[in-house]
User: Fold this.
Amino acid sequence: MVPTFRVRGGVGGAYVPPADKSITHRALMLASVAEGVSRVRRPLATGDCVSTRRCLQLLGARFTDEADGVVVDGVGLRGFCELDAENSGTTTRLLCGLIAGQRLFAVLGGDESLVKRPMGRVVEPLRQMGARIEGRGSGRFAPLCFLPGDGGLKALDWQVPVPSAQVKSSLMLAALRGSGPSTIRGKIASRDHTERMLRALGVKVEAEGALLRVHPVERLPAFDAPVPGDLSSAAFFVAASLISGASLVVRDCGTNPTRLGFIRAVRRMGAVVSVQEDGTSLGEPHGSLSLTPGALRGTEVGPDEVPELIDEIPLLAVLGLFARGVTRVSGAAELRVKESDRLEMIARMVEGLGGRVQVGEDGFTMEGPQKLSSSAFVDPRGDHRIAMAAAVASAGIPAGVRVTGFDCSRVSYPDFVRDFTALGGQVE
Assistant:
């Protein structure tokens, strides 16, 4: 059965988003290489994060579930044992940094989508650090094979060619076992979860403009920390509330400034959004968002902003359908190597909604408001963010939107339908 998403009134109220996927990945990894017992409270326990946990267990970390999270008995920075597993893109790239140079043989593979995603951007610098890595296409693609090392790596001085939090984080994790301080420079303006967590655990991480310097450590301490709500998940209901004209409060949510790019964009589009910070956990700020909609107008998002709202770009396309004027995104070529060619999928989604968009090599341009189809139908082809963005569009299409294969949303947001209906939507 193909579900139809509808909104009769507005999508609004108050809610708590699911746990942050990016932070869950990193917290589980750092707990696994810490010395002693850590507690990761309220982690995201679905999709890619399950892949990360499974791989870490195979590498020797021990996990015990508790009512409010998971207890992780870490093996230390040099304590992994052998692995042969499949994983998500985030799992694969970040684990590359933790596995490189260890005294083990490991193979990292993946599904049909993952083996098409570029891995050379982490393999090449890790090889310069002394890691022995083989792989398909000379290491440009998974599966990747890690050959045993002596447990350590050389210090690194590397120019990052594309802004990527996954690449940056992978190299920072490898730098923990370097022979001296490692320098990562270039296009490093992206999510800074790894920097914040490492500093909170006592690692010396220096930032000087477009440069990061990570000092090696002998050990990481165990920790006890909750995972805040995921702003990228909350963004779906921020967009739905703007389209439907209802107010929304998001509680217990991460408020990291490097994740607020979407909030800055919707403010330009007419939303009134206040951000309240309530505290920090593992260096991560968290709090609440309060949103009051306004008349939507188009906006422009350029290359400098893209790294801080990369996951929300499909939502900008949906908002652009209802906004007056031109909405334009450029500098987003990285979307072509996500779970799908996401720029192409944005074009297919807009077409399925009955709209029009011009998609280029690194972005798109559209003008609104547009008259959309009364029989909107979208096939996300397994891309979870496209599926949920299409469902959000129903907030402005009275006849609703049919989304086939919607179960793919479970990768990042298993309770999307529950929250959609709780905030005023309908699913039939």
Remarks:
- The first strand starts at residue 4 and ends at 7.
- The longest helix spans residues 231-244.
- DSSP finds 13 helices and 24 strands in the chain.
- The chain has two domains: 4-19+228-427, 21-217.
